[in-house]
Amino acid sequence: MKWGVVTFPGSLDDRDMLYALRDVMEQDAQPLWHKDRDLRNVDCVVLPGGFSYGDYLRCGAMARFSPIMESVVNFARRGGLVLGVCNGFQILCEAHLLPGALTRNRSLAFICERLTVRVENVNTPFTCAAQNGELLRLPIKHGEGLYVAPRDELRRMEDRGQVLVRYVNQHGEPSDDANPNGSMNSIAGVANDRFNVFGLMPHPEHAVEPMLGGDGGLRIFRSIVQSLA
Amino acid sequence: MYITPKRGVLDPQGRAIEHSLKSLGFHNVGQVRMGKYIELDVAAQSAEEAAGEVGRMCEQLLANSVIEDYRLEVEGA
Amino acid sequence: MYITPKRGVLDPQGRAIEHSLKSLGFHNVGQVRMGKYIELDVAAQSAEEAAGEVGRMCEQLLANSVIEDYRLEVEGA
Amino acid sequence: MSEHPAALPGEPRVDLEQALAHGLSEDEFRLIERGLGRTPTFTELGVFSVMWSEHCSYKSSRRHLAMLPNQGSLVVGGPGENAGALDVGDGWLAVFKIESHNHPSFVEPYPGAATGVGGILRDIFAMGARPVASLNSLKFGSFNHPRTRYLLGGVVGGIGGYGNCVGVPTVGGEVMFDDAYNDNILVNAFCLGLARKGELQSARARGVGNPVLYVGSATGRDGIHGASLLASAEFDQSSDQKRPTVQVGDPFTEKLLIEACLEAVKTGAVAALQDMGAAGLTSSSSEMAARGKLGIELNLDRVPLREPNLTPYEMLLSESQERMLIVAEKGREAELQAVFEKWDLHAVVIGQITDDGRWRVSWRGQAVADIPVAMLADEAPVYERPFAPPVRPSARTTAVKQRPAPAEALRRLLDSPNVGSRRWVYRQYDSIVQSNTVIEPGSDAAILRIKGTRRALALAVDSNPRACAIDPYLGAIAVTLEAARNVACSGARPIGITDCLNYGNPERPEIMWQFVRGIEGIRDAAAALDTPVVSGNVSFYNETQGRAIPPTPTLAMVGLSADLANCRGQFFRHPGDLILLLRTSNPALAASEYAAMFGGEGRLETIDLQKERALIDLLVTLAEARLISSAHDVSDGGLAAAMAECCFSPAGNLGAAVRVSAAGLDSAVNLFGEGPSTVIVSAPPEAARAIEHRAEGRGLECRRVGTVLNDPILKIDTEIEVDVAELRAIYEQALPRRIQAHG
Ligand SMILES: Nc1ncnc2c1ncn2[C@@H]1O[C@H](COP(=O)(O)OP(=O)(O)O)[C@@H](O)[C@H]1O
Ligand SMILES: [Mg+2]
Fold this sequence. Notes:
The complex is a heterotetramer, with one copy of chain A, two copies of chain B and one copy of chain D.
Chain A: E1 2-7, H1 14-24, E2 28-33, E3 44-47, H2 67-77, E4 81-85, H3 87-94, E5 101-103, E6 111-119, E7 135-142, E8 146-148, H4 151-160, E9 163-168, E10 187-191, E11 197-200, H5 218-228
Parallel strand pairs in A: 1-2, 1-3, 3-4, 4-11
Antiparallel strand pairs in A: 5-8, 6-7, 6-9, 9-10, 10-11
Chain B: E1 2-5, H1 12-23, E2 29-42, H2 47-62, E3 68-71
Chain D: H1 16-21, H2 26-36, H3 42-51, H4 54-57, H5 62-65, E1 75-77, E2 84-89, E3 92-100, H6 102-107, H7 109-125, E4 130-140, H8 148-166, E5 170-177, E6 186-196, E7 211-216, H9 227-230, H10 251-267, E8 270-275, H11 280-291, E9 295-299, H12 312-317, E10 323-328, H13 333-342, E11 346-354, E12 358-363, E13 366-372, H14 373-377, H15 406-414, H16 423-426, E14 437-439, E15 446-449, E16 456-462, H17 465-470, H18 472-489, E17 493-502, H19 509-529, E18 533-539, E19 543-544, E20 547-548, E21 552-561, E22 578-583, H20 593-598, H21 609-624, E23 630-633, H22 638-647, E24 655-658, H23 667-672, E25 678-683, H24 688-697, E26 701-709, E27 713-716, E28 720-723, H25 724-739
Parallel strand pairs in D: 4-5, 9-12, 17-18, 24-27
Antiparallel strand pairs in D: 1-2, 2-3, 3-6, 4-6, 7-10, 7-11, 8-10, 9-11, 12-13, 14-15, 15-16, 16-21, 17-21, 19-20, 22-25, 22-26, 23-25, 24-26, 27-28
Helix pairs in contact in D: 7-8, 7-10, 8-10, 10-13, 18-19, 18-21, 19-21
The structure holds adenosine-5'-diphosphate (ADP) and magnesium ion (MG).
């Protein structure tokens, strides 16, 4: 399969994503540039973390309008796989490819730390290599990761299993203490209702080598590979 | 133009400000809400035209309707 | 209350928004400045008293006089 | 353009009074007149006043800085360029520097600290190196001071706000709180970058006729060195509009600038590259020309402006952020402009390199400055300021208060804002972006791998103002050694230093004496360790109302490990491991946190540099032989606090049972004293003999003192037996509980 990683002005984890995919996962992955429209026949588009356009208005608000996003939206409508991490998640929400929005952490501070998420639904291309309820150690690093969605929408999402990962404590249960940013329902990542677009705040690309704090992120990349095999 | 968090959406910044003000001794403050204020010049024939234009900017870019409300004010130049 | 960057102080937010609007095809926008908008309830006898109180809040906490200007508007309730 | 520059309409008259108002002395003003053979114009006067300021010219410190050793087999570039560079093997160079942003951060903590980070990054990528790690050293007043929380929040927010947004991980630093910094905080920012060998970019202009490109943000009236000018009524005629303003950072633009500059350097079309730091356009252009012994010509009409109607004076002195100057290879400017356009940045030809050794500036068809380059960049007066020890040494001896029992003292120390966990701070920093951070903040030193190799770099930054206040010479040695030990405990060999020297007013002989003694200390320690000082920064005038900060040299040490797998953190790892103590001399209560809290006397032990060197060597060898599981340097809070820290493993609490009492050594001194050097090592029992053997071979004391326990209990001698979870809770809460204390 082929991966494409988009670089927006202000993307930061684009190089790390390429490193994780190419050097660790030994995948065919190539950079995509925000001013281009050509997705180069990739099978999965990744929107990486960072501060696109400085995130000066709202996170992800401006990136959504870059030329490449037009192609990404069409690609997603045709069922193509799109993964958004951190700022990428924010962009996907702004582009209405995912429901809800991400707002300022309830502590108002940027938070960088490793924590645990629980996989909530393994019947998706992004989680099929994981066990149901599996706990993954992943790092977060963001200032605006508080997930919100209208109540009724949220209920529908929960019913359909669109919440793919949730912040949990050491016993594997969601709790206020284990919720780093105040997200509704401890949501760490959600998929759209067709399950071909997935956004999450934790960074799987920063959890691919035991030496660098663990490899829980491999589950997600392997799922994608497996689903396309 | 004023962009404010929708009612019902958590406004941690507003809450933090309220808290700080109270601890500074301003006991008569009630709820604080914090939003954005954007000032821009638009070349337009009329106030209506300008408002329409800015409305479109808000819908498209400046405000996110999931979490924010907006309100416009136009001043002639 | 409106808090805006002082004239002459770099306003990267405003600049970025301007840039985005233009690239969205809003060619008639001029300079954009972005600031904060804070809405708060104050229990006070009169509009003057409320304004005075909020002015003090601005000086002490809400605005940073080195880089920001502020402006108040009072509405009776 | 051969005519002399003339006064511009409306410009103030230039005379001695005006020169004094610009902070120049009478002698300096006469020197300028003599050098030019005429009276400078107002614009030129402004230019001289910044270029000859202490900040730009190092006029008080230059002579003494020459004492610092800056040569070594790994040194590739040193003082003179924007940052120092060391060869770290496998074709890589480490480029690093530290710089102060004290005053701006005190006035405006968020933008002040943020622009400090931005500035040091530009020094690094100006060398063609990609910035890969930031560290910082912060000094605040005590929590009793009303502004401390505000300053702490603003500074940490600013460092994170900028660093997180440019994608350079902040991997370490230090924070201290002390009354001595109530009115003058310190914010020192360090950055390290990596460049390929042979691709180091110079800031030395070359090629007569080569075009000069201005790249990055547009110029505004930021930070124009105004204080003195505001006093000039004439200048202030158009009032508000001309007020010098605080610099605000724009990290998004900086990120684009990093990518664009590194891409530009790769084209080979860049002859010289320099950041516009203090005195922006003026210093960057004149320094580049001076290094190349050439001249330069600038046309201000082409400078991108953020607001209309800037005067030449303002354009030349503006300190707007996120700007760089490039000397391009003739004919290749379009190639460079295309790169900057790709990143949506300005890139404008504003001048060219000349052969006449003059710095010439024109505006609206008129000459506004014409000065010999050398006069600006190299010929600022150099002062031999008088120095003398103070009549009465300023040792801060505090009366001994009621001393708590050891277990209670340990709890109180772990609760001290100077000992407790720094997590509240570093949690706000992205420490993992770029995928190189092997040891994250929270251990003695940060470890970064160099991708594609087995190599790793260790980074630590340290200072010890309390020791420096008692003895500026021994204190500076202690600081250098501590930084080296922190690196060596992590398993890397210390290879180079950058230093930030924060002192008071150098015109006072006792301050100058502190400064000179500090440099002598660093010199002697650096020589003993074989670690050259390849870059640095001096910050004088850190005083308010005649009260100077304690002498605060801040040292950043870079270490190198040939094999990442040898690197270690400070935390115990395996229950059953033996715990050993390596010691070069007895600790002392002088300058300790214990003495600051409970009183104590004030003399530092002398330091045996050969022994200290032997300890560093031993630590590196032990790591290379993979004999040890962990190593932790004893510093703030002494041995007991360090032992507790070893138990606070990120993977979960462990315990320890040790007997550390030593004959003839008071137990409080032993448990809570500080000073070179004690290191706590843990190792599998079967390695103990080999460790002792190597220590003996170097004449170092090595004692088996106990074992690592699975049970989270800390037992020290018969005096301390406490639950590690309790200690850890105290340690973790030390900062948060104070910060939250008042909203
Ligand atoms: N300002 C800071 N920024 C980032 N990390 C910090 C900062 N201050 C301290 N740290 C980290 O916290 C840990 C403890 O710091 P410190 O007590 O000064 O260490 P030591 O005494 O071993 O030199 C170190 O890992 C250090 O890098
Ligand atoms: Mg240490």
